[in-house]
Amino acid sequence: MLEFRLPDLGEGVTEGEVVEWRVRPGATIRSDEVLVVVGTDKATVEIPSPFTGTVAALLVSEGTVVPVGTPLVRIEDPTGPASTTAATPPATAPAPTAPPPPAGPPAPQGASVPALPAVRRQARRAGLDLARVPGTGPGGRVRAADLLRAGAPGPGSATRERREPLRGARRVAAERLAEAHRHVPQVTYVLDVDFGPAEAAAASGKGVGSPTLLGYVCAATVATLHLHPIFNSRYDEATGEVVYLPVIDLGLAVQAAGGLIVPVLRDAGALTLPDMQVALAELIERARQGHLGAAELTGATFTVSSAGRLGGLLATPLVNWPNVATLGVHAVADRAVVRDGRLAIGRMANLSLSFDHRVIDGMAAAAFLHELADRLRRPTDPGAPPPAA
Fold first, then answer.
1. Which residue, among 55, 80, 64, has the nearest Cα to 4 in the 3D structure?
2. CA–CA separation, 56 vs 3, rounded Å?
3. C-beta neighbour count of 225 within 10 angstroms
């Protein structure tokens, strides 16, 4: 019998949260099948089993945060090339073992059906067998909406309050937002921008690499960062110095299944507009499918947050610390505007620039946002130098 320990996930990760077990005691696990979903401060990852065997015991309960090297599960009769090393303790001192979950009844029906722990609890309360509920999530995962369609009680139907701990990406996001709020004295500058030219240019494009509206925004943002490098910096609190960063690693806030994440487009300043669009499309798709590694979710030097049609009229995005600024892009809509003294209808949207007031003042923020707006008004080449006065 071997104990499988929480492996070193790289990127300086020292601990992980057991978000969801994909096996139950007594089940047979095969090599490369997903054993457990673990959340870290970098990403939420699926960890496969390195060998085939029978699950004897789960040693850590869902929702528990444990150090790297902690035994997670015991496997009987292991076979496979990794079985001789899986039980080897890490080089560091052994981490304390989390107590095993209390013994209980056999796993309920539908235990092998992919579903988050909260969905499983809701199904148990409703007396539903998950195996009989058609899942509409990735890989047939059963979602809360699927339970409602199957007859589970909806919000407001319970007679008592329900408590659910923050786990995985939501827990990490909560910690980061609180940390950003503690560190950054934030101010937000807002400008209404005519998106008509950029929207028309995006609508006329066809084929791979044809820029979308978001592609034009990102290209114009990168060009503006070249002209205003203080926005691509960080503040060293220990020395009181502003550190100007040599490469633009553009973060893009994306709503994925587990919550809001910020994948990073590396060296965005070196990309042409078509190459940037291809890279953006691939990055967003992989983020929504949960296929990004931890290294692709860290290290942004400037962040763009866009919710598309759900962007609303105005929001004040939090600075993605240690960045010094975040750009919010809001919904494009028809609005009454005055052009050459005449009332007209424009395709307008608000841009909101949140910034660290220790590093950036209001005049610098206004100059940045007006430059960005000018580039969006001439989207055929948003990265070109501004025309001479």
1. 55
2. 10
3. 25
What span, in angstroms and rounded, lies between the C-alpha atoms of 340 and 328? 29
Active-site option among 32, 275, 361, 381 = 361
Distance of CA 378 to CAs 212, 365, 373, Å? 14, 21, 9
From 28, 108, 25, 98, select the one nearest 61 (Cα to Cα): 98
Phi first, then psi, for residue 284 (nearest 5°) are: -65, -40
> What is the band of 348 on the pLDDT scale with cuts at 50, 70, 90?
very high
Give yes or no: 357 in active site.
yes
Three-state DSSP at 65 gives strand
pLDDT of residue 332: 93
The backbone region for 148, taken as left when phi is positive above 0, alpha when psi lies in -120 to 50, beta otherwise, is alpha
> Which pTM value belongs to this model?
0.62
On the CB side of 260, CA atoms within 13 Å amount to: 16
Q: For residue 322, is the peptide bond before it cis, meaning its omega torsion is within 30 degrees of 0?
A: yes
Q: Which of 74, 80, 62, 10 has its CA nearest to residue 41?
A: 10
Q: Which amino acid is at 155?
A: P
- For residue 85, the model assigns a pLDDT of 41
Nearest to 211 by CA among 277, 268, 271, 265: 277
Which one is predicted more confidently, 20 or 222?
Answer: 222
Catalytic residue among 357, 370, 374, 381: 357
For residue 98, which of 15, 166, 41 has the smallest C-alpha distance? Answer: 15
Residues 6+ apart with CB under 8 A from 356: 184, 185, 186, 235, 319, 321, 324, 325
Q: How far apart are the first and last CA of the chain?
A: 76
Phi, psi of 82 (to 5 degrees): -95, 0
Q: By the 8 A CB rule, do 146 and 166 touch?
A: no
Please determine, for residue 116, whether its predicted confidence score (pLDDT) is greater than 90: no
